[in-house]
Amino acid sequence: MKLNQTNTINRFGEFKDKKLEKEYEESELIVLFKYLRPIVLFLGILYFLFVIPDFFFVKNPKAFQLIFLVRAVYLILIGIFFFRMKSIKKYSTLCFWVTLYEVMASVVFIFVFYQYESPDFFIQAFGIIAIILAVCLVPNRWINMIMVSVFIAVTFFAASIYFLEQMDASDFPAAIFYILLVTALSSSASFRTHLFKRIHFLNGRDLIQLSIRDPLTGIYNRLKFDDELDKWISYAKRYPCDLSLMIFDIDYFKKINDCFGHLTGDKVLTEVTDLVRGMIRETDIFARWGGEEFVILLPNTHKSEAVEITERIRKRISDYDFTSGHLTCSFGVDSWRKEEERDSFVQRVDTLLLNAKEMGKNNVQSDDVHLNQPTLLTE
Known about the structure:
Alpha-Beta Plaits
């Protein structure tokens, strides 16, 4: 999928559309928990195990004890983060804590480095490179990765200038070059990773939409509606609640296609869809059942209320001036009965729709209610 003006990536490697970015973050948070926790624990243990070379290279016992204590405290903090990570509900919160732990790891590294009696500047510079690579490995916001990498490098060079009295004149610029090079390459690779992950997210979202949406009208298709109806019936069986179903059909739709052509017929379908969509609640489930037939599931809606809603829709459609002129729809509506299965529920309401057509069209039929209006088209 190509990025367009509505889903382009900003200079921080995130969607410019805040709503889209939030949707991505919510999906990413679920994925991150699967592999971020073991990565964090592994890196924390590995970081602590560097106490082994510390033991051999730090000759001062008190300095080694201090190093051991600092590394042990950091490992404990990593363990706390590992166990509490699943309680984090926001992607931004997770990124904050990841960034904080990376900064702490950097500070610990600099602290340990200068506990050595004669630290090798160039070897420690490669240690900084390893930390920068690890920072880019751990999932985080791209801008956070850059800031942590820059913080590590600047802190290392500043501490080196302050603490190291003897340093080869060629080592310092060489270290700057290599660290800047690694930071630039890692940042570029990380940015591309963020970009490709968001493109993959968009592609996956589009595939999901294609599988549940009617391509012409943009509302749910029959497969998705059946799934939602099954869910609501299952819910109503466990927790008694009102559940109503409306099925309607455009009257004389074949005549519209014959007189004006199929393109106009398609236009009428989208116009009807847009009109009805503006009259129902966000919680209502609106789908194209097939051809010119539509269904609306009305959760937590009593039959009498559903009939009133249906009548308002019927009247609004009959009063509206469509591309092909005025048209009407016939409606069947009723509520779910206790322990009723999906197919029998749909069949019962579909029969009410057929009754509405047999009674002259442009009317609403329910089991014990019928509202008739004169049809506006005749065959």
